[in-house]
Amino acid sequence: MVDSSIKFLTLLALLYCLFVPLVEARVRLYKWEVKYEFKSPDCYKKLVITINGRTPGPSIIAQQGDTIVVELKNSLLTENVAIHWHGIRQIETPWMDGTEGVTQCPILPGETFVYRFVVDRPGTYLYHAHYGMQREAGLYGSIRVGLPDGQTEPFLYDYDRSIILNDWYHKSTYEQAAGLSSIPFVWVDEPQSILIQGRGRFNCNAPGIEAGLCNATSPECVPYALTVVPGKTYRLRIGSLTALSALSFEIEGHNMTVVEADGHYVEPFVVKNLFIYSGETYSVLIKADQDPSRNYWASAKVVSRNSTTPNGLAIFNYYPNHPRRNPPTPPPVRPRWDDVGPRLSQSLAIKAHRGYIHPPPQTSDRVIVMLNTQNRVNGHVRWSVNNVSFNLPHTPYLIAYKHNLLHAFEQTPPPDGYDYANYDISSVNTKNVNATTSNAAYRLAFNTTVDIILQNANTMNPNNSETHPWHLHGHDFWVVGYGTGKFDMFNDPKKYNLVDPIMKNTVAVHPYGWTALRFRADNPGVWAFHCHIESHFFMGMGVVFEEGVERVGKLPTSIMGCGDSKGYFRP
Amino acid sequence: MVDSSIKFLTLLALLYCLFVPLVEARVRLYKWEVKYEFKSPDCYKKLVITINGRTPGPSIIAQQGDTIVVELKNSLLTENVAIHWHGIRQIETPWMDGTEGVTQCPILPGETFVYRFVVDRPGTYLYHAHYGMQREAGLYGSIRVGLPDGQTEPFLYDYDRSIILNDWYHKSTYEQAAGLSSIPFVWVDEPQSILIQGRGRFNCNAPGIEAGLCNATSPECVPYALTVVPGKTYRLRIGSLTALSALSFEIEGHNMTVVEADGHYVEPFVVKNLFIYSGETYSVLIKADQDPSRNYWASAKVVSRNSTTPNGLAIFNYYPNHPRRNPPTPPPVRPRWDDVGPRLSQSLAIKAHRGYIHPPPQTSDRVIVMLNTQNRVNGHVRWSVNNVSFNLPHTPYLIAYKHNLLHAFEQTPPPDGYDYANYDISSVNTKNVNATTSNAAYRLAFNTTVDIILQNANTMNPNNSETHPWHLHGHDFWVVGYGTGKFDMFNDPKKYNLVDPIMKNTVAVHPYGWTALRFRADNPGVWAFHCHIESHFFMGMGVVFEEGVERVGKLPTSIMGCGDSKGYFRP
């Protein structure tokens, strides 16, 4: 008996060695149906876009090298849809980036579109609608890519958890968009609540609430509880998909060790609170090392805006306390919304983990300075880059470039800079109030190194400069420098960190400051680069990069069928 | 001088004679942009779909034989659109009917679709969105087709005016649609107001109204004033595009002489109040023959439902009284909502004008009885015809038939009748609670005569039967009979009016009654026939007729590009 058991185990081990490589690179198939449903994520009932009945949608959990297949059925009544896989570089599949107007036509009601792409790196990523302002309607979720079996991260933890932070409006995205493009401008205002993993809490007793819409006892708005076992260490993956808000996240009485940012290992550092901007992801390690007889608040507070939005609250629940038992202490109130210093400090603190440094090119081939301003165009309030306010064409760039439909958008390239000498970034924009609009793209020479300097400035309101989190599709970039004031083309580049800069896909430019980033234009395709604040991108704060499009393989016709590619779909 | 003037006038007259035929059959070009805007048609601000900034949209005013060209630009953000030309038969242009899923693919954001069709008969018609529930969002307007120069109608009037009646919801169409397809069912409830030519009046002091949304002094909700000169006779063209409501329209103290219905001359008859159902149009003559020192109420009251919706009010304004001066008398309160008798009487009173009778075929080739019921399908509340609840395919029928894409929808034909012997129309539907859904079409032999018997029944609520106005695309039909109770296949046809029946495109089936109509299947194409109540059609109350599709000319590819025709568009 013993002998045959050993033989059997040996056989099993042999089979394991033979088949594990096959098993590891799996195809993970998801069938999603997108539709409108009424939900009360913050106790206030409104129409949201769900995936398979949920918002946030189902998590994608995969391993490095897996192929993700999402069969996305659009069951909206009259509305199209597209989903972006945020942080996935789409190497060799630029047509699967899910960015309407850039990489694909929208998916019509009744259609099923198949997204198929490889998750080639471990890390914490996101997905969300990338069409109109649909992300704000609740169409988002998380992607967690694990290491191959047998490989380990450069840090230890007992459990792995994910949350997404979001802000939440009660008005529909249509109402918001119509207001933003109206004359006079109707601002969407501050969000009604902050959601932690899809749950928030709106005060149903607030005045002026339409009767019957708010139910403080709805099970849908029970605060999210992160249940922990005393003494254990948790890896908490935190993503932000706020429409507007920059957030400070903290867990009362617990330090957090930052270990990952946008899929890259961070040289660990400890924070009391984590600043996180829309489009970013972080992993932090939290040890459940406090008094286990009680629960603690997890709190997400708006910073960078003097917001009326109350903090989002969740419960850091020490097992076996009841997960709905409120902590005995008041929720955290810090930090001050207008204290930029700590935010800049955190930005500067994030370096590549010393064992995982990707050395950046030491020089760049092209520098594009991007002045971030608020402007007026024909009476509309807009956001601009170098006084050009972006609008999307209706023929996606990728198709237009590959199929020579260049009349589909403007061909005069957007400017690589602005009038540095004469533009005062520190006061209200008077000189360049009138910007122009364009849908022209930046064309980058393939395999060159590009520097982008994001230059912040005063808005159209006195003494106001906003934080803009910029997200680049199809790439990670090195964050080589931050500074305050106006970027100095001569001196500031000398201070770039070209030793151990972190790579990210989203980075903030702080009020009145600048952020320098570098990337290799080595991923053939057309890629959006834009402020991740939903209303800012809608109002023109974005650009598009074309690089090596001649190297892009044959496009699937499933992405076609709109604008000048209307007849290009082939079954 | 005199001599040369006479010569010149003679020349002018000659030129007139030469060119008038060309001038008469004009091409009338409209450029419309469709988008969302905030409007307060009943003092309550909500997002509506406008055409060139207006709701109702611009009127189309043409003469018989004109070609209408509407270049429709979709400037919605994420939503498609399609517009139906209600009452225009689209002879030889069945692809221009504007019915999404039946005759065309929806028009994508950013696209411009060109509608081009001939208005071949004089009369009063309508246009409105025919996609999802967009009609309710405000996308509608009127079409007035005049006689050729020199021809006259069989009645006299001094002035010609048009109004559209509508009911108005404060919830968005998305919210309504999501509720209707939810389990449990969320009914849209009664409309908040009745609009007369796009203006209504909601009580801003009603409890539970969100602050800041209702403004009783908004100029957008000043009641519509129909200004009249004492002693003159007005032709008032009245169309109804209500989402739900059957209406009684009257002008305090004034008789109305009904002279036109759905583009056909009516043997004149006088009413105090006009019952009008969604999708119908009427012309009435009104003589301004009352005390001219004051104004009078025009009132639209909901009938057939025990509605909470207040009457819609406009001002019948005797010049030179101020058009905003309220009449000194209270608005009319009649008729009773549940008094079916007068409504049936009006239906029976409408006959073809004796000089304009189109004699109907004396026999029919096929009789289709259509039982109208409310049912449940998989827990959803639905409306059905012969216990089949309709849903639209995503490949329009017209394209599917012409291009042999018959797999795009079910091929088992829907039933031509129901179990007459055993179905009790007068009580709650228990036997056939569970209907099925289908998108199969009725195929009619070309050039045959078809009778449709609309058979009403009790809904799923005790002692309740609703009024359903049925609208046929691509045709007018003869209304050959009405009756109460269950249609008797043997005896009732003997009582058909085959002498002077009116032709219409929309007709009501009254509670617990039946309506018989006859038409010639002589217009090659695919045509929707459905209850014109927006929520009822959404919930399955419709069918589709195919007739002579093999005779339809080459389809323009501009209608293609969705479902199985996704690649069929050719620029």
How would you describe what is shown here?
Two copies of one chain form a homodimer. The first copy, chain A, has three domains: 29-145, Immunoglobulin-like (Sandwich), CATH 2.60.40.420; 159-354, Cupredoxins -  blue copper proteins (Immunoglobulin-like), CATH 2.60.40; 358-565, Sandwich (Immunoglobulin-like). Chain A contains five helices and 32 strands. Chain A has helices at residues 2-24, 173-180, 340-349, 397-402, 534-538, and strands at residues 27-39, 46-51, 60-63, 67-74, 83-86, 112-118, 123-129, 140-146, 159-168, 193-196, 225-228, 233-240, 246-251, 256-261, 264-271, 273-276, 281-287, 296-303, 312-318, 366-377, 380-385, 388-390, 436-438, 442-444, 449-455, 468-472, 477-484, 503-504, 506-509, 513-520, 525-531, 542-547. In chain A, the strands form seven sheets. In chain A, strands 10-9-12-17-14-15 form a six-stranded mixed beta sheet, with no helix packed on it. Chain A has a six-stranded mixed beta sheet with strand order 21-20-25-30-27-28. In chain A, helix 4 (397-402) links the parallel strand 22 and strand 23. The N and C termini of chain A lie far apart (59 Å). Residues 17-22 of chain A have low confidence and may be disordered. At the A-B interface, strand 1 and helix 2 of A face strand 1 and helix 2 of B.
State the CATH class of the largest domain in chain A: Mainly Beta
- Largest sheet of chain A, described in full? 6 strands, mixed
Shape of chain A: globular
The portion of residues forming beta strands of chain A comes to 35-45%
InterPro entries (chains A, B): Cu-oxidase-like_N, Cu-oxidase_2nd, Cu-oxidase_C, Cu-oxidase_fam, Cu_oxidase_CS, Cu_oxidase_Cu_BS, Cupredoxin, CuRO_3_AAO
GO cellular component, one term (chains A, B): extracellular region
Signal peptide (chains A, B): 1-25
Subcellular location (chains A, B): Secreted
